[in-house]
Amino acid sequence: MNPTSPMVILVASILTNNILLAGFLGMCSFLACSTKIETAVGLGTAVTFVMVCTTTLNYLLYHYVLVPLELEFLAFILFIAVIAGFVQLVEMVMERFSPKLYHALGIFLPLITVNCAILGAALFMVIRNYNGIQSAAFGLGGGLGFLLAIVLMAGLREKMGYSNVPAPLRGTAVLMLITGVIAMTFMGFAGMITMQ
């Protein structure tokens, strides 16, 4: 069992071990849906909800179903099935209660199912040998870290709409530069909190 405190795991997964900026998982939806703050908040909230629920549920299923039956090799299939089920739930709720956000996210909402950040959280939970509380803390921190990063990027992209970006840097080039600077900023917290 990993002796790291759940609070350390939570804070570290938001800042220093940000699944998006340190692990570079989930970059496709990060770059595509960070054009407006409203859309970024909606996607970040949906990813956080799915990540917390699926990481916790995947912990329970892995340790109480797959391990006792010696079926650990089915972990990928199980994790993806659980993630797909929760994304369907989020999609139905969002379509019912926030149709504007549902249409703004478009194809990227069902693509949360294959968002590698969510699958990565479930796999890191197993690799790092977290217990149930640590897994929930890691899922929450990973989701909040994703939310924080995508909202920061959306805010910067909205401000760039009023800027005169040099022609060679327009488009993806400036987005990669900004992502790198944000990642280095988050890494500035590395001396404060460390996680194994």
Distance between the termini: 12 Å
Query: How much helix, percentage-wise, in residues?
Result: 55-70%
Task: Summarize the helix and strand pattern as letters.
Answer: HHHHHHHH
How many individual helices?
A: 8
User: What's the domain count?
Assistant: 1
Low-confidence stretches: none
Overall geometry: globular
Please state the structural category. mainly alpha
How many β strands by DSSP?
0
Whole-angstrom Rg: 17 Å
Instruction: Quote the beta fraction.
Output: under 5%
Mean pLDDT: 88
Report on the biggest sheet.
Answer: none
Quickly list its features.
8 helices, globular
Explain what this protein looks like in three dimensions.
- With 196 residues, the chain is an all-alpha fold.
- It has one domain (6-187).
- It contains 8 helices and no strands.
- The radius of gyration is 17 Å and the shape is globular.
- The N and C termini lie close together (12 Å).
Task: Give the helices and strands, then pairings.
Elements: H1 6-14, H2 27-32, H3 37-66, H4 75-97, H5 99-105, H6 116-127, H7 132-160, H8 172-187
Helix pairs in contact: 1-7, 3-4, 3-6, 3-7, 4-5, 4-6, 6-7, 7-8
What does this entry show, briefly?
By secondary structure, this protein is mostly helical.
